[in-house]
Specification:
278 residues, alpha+beta, Alpha-Beta Plaits, 4-stranded antiparallel beta sheet, 6 helices, elongated
Length: 278
């Protein structure tokens, strides 16, 4: 009976060991499968991330191109506000805008100068703004220069900006107000803020000069005068200082000729001595 019990206990122990081993193998298999799945997902994620970045760059390039094309399309546009609305046809509207520009802006306009003219928005109590496309950019610029003539009237005009530019200009307007409060001059050009600082600038610090300080040119000239006074017969020396000037050609020729005469006299004296010896 005891032998049977021992045999059963051994069997139970072996079963427990096998169970533990099976659990460990299962955990290892699960971990390996999880790692493989994670690696595959990371590879696919990297591929999708690269594709997403490429598509993002393409979309950004397309947006820039669209914005550029929209800017070019609106480059010759001006929007007029406050002009009474009573025209019955396109021809009447064109006549009204030409007459308005001739009368209020002192610019002689013809039909060929206008490419397109139209009202913007829905009909309401107030006159709708008029969008005018001119045939040349120069004509648009000339009209914008004359907008100050509408200062004391109910009329005014603005450039035709895209929607995203209008939103950005609103944001820039807040910054412009802050700069004006500081006393700076501010202008908004298209989508950029141009700030001109006020003239109240702090002077640059300068190093103090010593009491016995003299300019370099003055010190050099004084040194030259002292040398001339002390040694009137001293030979002329060349100086590297620019302030002392160059040696005059006449003086240079005099020195060269003098040296040549001294050399010839020395050679003649030597020849005479040789003849006397002979």
């Amino acid at each position: 009976m005891e032998e049977i019990m021992k045999a059963l206990q051994n069997i139970q122990k072996e079963l427990n060991d096998q169970k533990i081993e099976i659990q460990k193998n299962g955990e290892r298999v699960t971990e390996q499968v999880t790692q493989n799945i994670t690696n595959k997902l990371e590879e696919k994620f990297a591929i999708w991330k690269e594709k997403h970045q490429t598509l993002k760059e393409k979309v950004e390039n397309q947006e820039r191109r669209i914005q550029f094309m929209e800017k070019q399309a609106r480059a010759r546009n001006i929007i007029f506000f406050g002009i009474e609305e009573g025209e019955s046809s396109y021809k009447n509207l064109e006549n009204n805008i030409i007459k308005f520009i001739n009368e209020y802006l002192s610019i002689k306009l013809e039909y060929r100068d206008i490419q397109e003219v139209k009202r913007l928005g829905k009909i309401g109590d107030k006159p709708r703004p008029i969008l005018v496309t001119f045939t040349t950019l120069g004509l648009k610029i000339n009209i914008l220069k004359q907008k100050n003539l509408l200062k004391d009237t109910q009329y005014y005009l603005k450039e035709d900006y895209p929607k995203y530019i209008l939103e950005k200009r609103k944001e820039l307007q807040k910054e412009a107000n802050k700069e004006r409060e500081k006393g700076n001059r501010v202008t908004i050009k298209y989508d950029k803020l141009v700030v001109v600082k006020s003239n109240n600038k702090r002077a640059l610090p300068t190093s103090p000069e010593p009491q016995n300080y003299q300019p370099q040119q003055t010190r050099i000239s004084q040194t030259t005068k002292k040398n001339k006074t002390k040694n009137p017969n001293s030979p002329i020396r060349r100086s590297n200082s620019v302030s002392e000037g160059f040696v005059r050609p006449g003086l240079l020729n005099y020195l060269v000729n003098k040296n040549d005469k001294n050399t010839l006299q020395h050679q003649n004296n030597e020849n005479v001595n040789k003849n006397n010896q002979i």
